[in-house]
Amino acid sequence: ERNQADVFEAKSGRTDLIFLIRFRHCSLLRNQRCILAYLYDRLLRIRALRWEYGSVLPNTIQFHMAAEEVEWFNRYKKSLATYMRSVGGEEGLDLTQDIKPPKSLYIEVRCLRDYGEFEINDGTTVLLKKNSQHFLPRWKCEQLIRQGVLEHIL
Length: 154
Known about the structure:
It comes from Nyctibius grandis (Great potoo). The protein has helices spanning about 1-10, 20-55, 60, 65-85, 140-145; strands at about 105-110, 115-120, 125-130, 135, 150.
């Protein structure tokens, strides 16, 4: 507001205010660039959270997000889900699986908390209870590993 008042005075003939006006304007533009870079970095981090945690964020992370960021996360989640359903045939293609190339198709996992029944594609169900160990397909349990339900035993 002070800058606009000085601009009005400079138009009236006070040319000594031009440098002050230019300095304030450059400062405002710099602050705007910094804010935009900060917000863009937060969006990149929120996008990375979708790939790391899946479609549901932990409450501890969601607590530190603004309402607009949560809304952006939900829109990104829906957009990604729509794209994954559109590729890969009838079942779609889950791009969030195998973020790192697997060394084997099956891995040994330990259950860190009670989860309940877990169905594998061949129709068998496995009861995931705390401290139980299982030999499961990597692609089926990778999401649960990221969520903290299972732990990969090396």
